[in-house]
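Write out this protein's structure.
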Amino acid sequence: MKKKQMNLMLLGVVVIFSFLFLVIIGRFLYIQATGEVHNVDLVKYGENMRETEEVVPAERGLIYDRSGMVLADNQPVYNMYAILDESYTGDSSSPLHVKDVDRTASELASVLEAKEAEIKEILSKGVEEDRYQMEFGQIGKGLSEDTYEEIKSLDLPGIYFNESLDRYYPNGLYASQVIGYTGYGGESDDQITGVYGIERRYNEELTGQNGYVNYQQDSYGDPIRNAEKNVQAPEDGNDLHLTIDQKIQSFLEDAMTTVESEYNPERIMAGVMDPDTGEVLAMSNRPTFNPNNRENIENWYNDMISSPFEPGSTMKIFTVASAIEEGVYNGQETYESGEFKINEHGRSIHDHDVDGWGTITFDEGVLRSSNVAMAELLWNYMGPDAYMDYLEAFHFDRKTGIDINGERIGRISYGGPWEQITTAYGQGSTFTPMQIMKAATSLANGGEMVKPYVVSHITDSETGKMVEETEREVVGQPISQDTTEQMKDLLGRVVTAEEGTAGAFELDQYSSFGKTGTASIPDPETGLYMNGGGDYVFSYVGMAPKDDPELLMYVAVKQPDVEYRYQGSETTSFIYNTVMENSLNYLDVTPDQKNVDQTKKQSLNDVIGQSTDEAVTTLEEKGLNVEVIGSGEQIESMWPTGNTEVVASQRVLLQTNGELTMPDMTGWTLRDALAFGRLNDLELDYLGTGFVQKQNIKPGASFESNQKLVLELSESNEETDQGNQGSEEEE
């Protein structure tokens, strides 16, 4: 009986195992026949397991200035890592992994800014934890090409690199708060993305579309030979072309740096604009920063667009313009200066000269920057409601719309009589410098107000074709042509008249007009205005030349280190005069001021193609100052160009077909020197302002196109001074 039961049990086991065997075999046969498991295609699954994808990063678009100089570029950087696993070496005759931790740490420390012990700790920890590879953290990230090459030359086993692109700003702090900078983020942690300034505002246009490469790999991670590859090329980002002009920006940066070092102000902010188009040619702030390292940043704001403050007397421009437009301004009408009250119980408004200047005309009140004149115009002539309409017409109630991230606006404090009156002369209400510049464009355009912008156009980085172009945009007309002409005349007298407050801002070679501002600063602790000698925001807004302005400039210096309030204009006038004079010369704007006699204009003969002797004789007979460049017998080019009007004693440059020789440029104006540089394709740089005193290429020496010419300028003209001394000795 037991034997029978055992046979039955054995038979059962055999049947069960046979059934299971048949099921397994059947399953294998099914899988083999269909290639599927649980509706998963094993062939495709295997291919997917072998398939890998590598990202091919797109290059971020470049940023150029208006002349084509690169302001934001891409450069290769390298991230270092170490392979620690011996299996990576395999059958190689030489080690491919880190074999000697001590030597590796010592050699790397000699190149990197890191301690040997720190590197050794990273490698040792990886070995102890049996890690396949190790990263070096910040020590090994973003290495330059020079550092990469130096480490490669050490021939250290197991040290490898991944290459990527990083943003680079060749000019450092140059226009940094306009251009901005990038960080990492976006679609992946290692993708460059704009986080500040133009980089952020136009991030979508600058960012390209990454490509990829799909291929199959073996179990060791190596590509399978002859396997098909799927390649999608990256699409690089578009390029931005700014309105910023490298020369004018350099004039501005240098002047601001000088004032910063000499007067140690709390803030400086300045901008230069083409008032006809709204193109911003230069913009800068102090403190500033280098976007390549962004260390110890003191000021995160572009103050020109992001920091509203009480502007002071520059607001009087718009108060007077509003009164003229309203038909209530009579410049010859008189008022009592010194103090103004709405009624006998009201608070007093005082002029900066508390005693005033007695009974004076409104024109004189404007020249003297009288607060009382503005109070009279607002309260007794226009009325607060009418003036508010003009504030809105000048767009002081809204952002300018400039194409830079971070623009803010202040607040029009207009709740009662006191706030309404103080707004008329620039206290109480707050505005940004860019709001003032935008409103001031109306004075240059017959009343039309234009929108400011910094991106001229966008191009395809591969083809160079235009993608988008910014056009001049008229955004309002708060005043008429007649009002602008009256304002230009009146503000011109603010600069030239004896009683005008802007005498320090008169340019040597160009007529101009403008208005000073000296704004009190509220003390956050007391709520009262500060009253120290330098506890003001000193500002100026002006244009030149007066009749047809080519440039509009605003500059403000907050709390410079000066003892008395009147010294504040030393800071703003230095920046304004230096930048405007040099910029107008650079732009070849014909001087119309002081020593230039405009009554003796004459037509300049076109002498290109003539013999050198004939050309010189023709021009010298007209009293022109002729400078021949080269030893050739025929004229190839000239400056100014032929058939244009020039003034008496104009320096005319004639370039011959012979060997180029350097003239003695002592006493030359910057304008002439810049023309010489352009005529001969020289890379010209200079220090100082005024007239040429020294040059790095000696007079008479031969030179070639694209050579660098460096000039030293001074306000004193040695050529003229020597002539004067000679006259005195003869007498």
